[in-house]
Amino acid sequence: MTDTMNQDISVCVRAVAGKTLLNIKQLDSLKAGDILQLDKKIDETVDIYANEALVAKGRVVVADNKLGIVITELIKNGVD
After folding, report:
1. Within 13 Å, how many C-alpha atoms sit on residue 30's CB side?
2. For position 44, which CATH number holds?
């Protein structure tokens, strides 16, 4: 399939480590140094999206003093 696709098309890739829900008052009161507690535990995988589709899961690593993601699972058709 990728042999015939235009491989020069840009895709937005993002890794989501977790989520939290805040009301407007809580959001407005955030300041530097505050900690947001996310819904995932430290050892859980992060979700990796290409545009808005879930494409993989992975774990956070440090590589050359930068954050990175090791892919641990590929998701077919946005469903795991």
Report:
1. 10
2. 2.30.330.10
